[in-house]
Amino acid sequence: VQLQASGGGLVQAGGSLRLSCAAAGRTTFSRIALAWFRQAPGKERDFVAAITESGGSTDYADSVKGRFTISRDNAEKTVYLQMNSLKPEDTAVYYCAARLGGGSYTYAQIKYYRYWGQGTQVTVSS
Fold this sequence. Notes:
- Helices cover about 0% and strands about 50% of the residues.
- The chain is mainly β.
């Protein structure tokens, strides 16, 4: 599975961005569970949001609940992260990640994801 993230940029606090991550490869997209992580300078890579294969279940880090929404379009083989009410502390490189299977469970730890995109920079100015 190859992942290509896009949509990052510079935005003022309170603004919005939508990240996209397109998948390619032989694996059936609907059999892939997906997630977004982020990494700020000098910090570890942290979980942001996850979505199951079917899209029926999602999970969010407490810091983004109510502001971010993860979704997927299996026909387009793309996962999205809609980010609203952005704060300066949301500044980071955002990575999409994928794992095969998982059923109805969402996974918030890096170790569960085998495939990673290249990252897209999000900068929120105050």
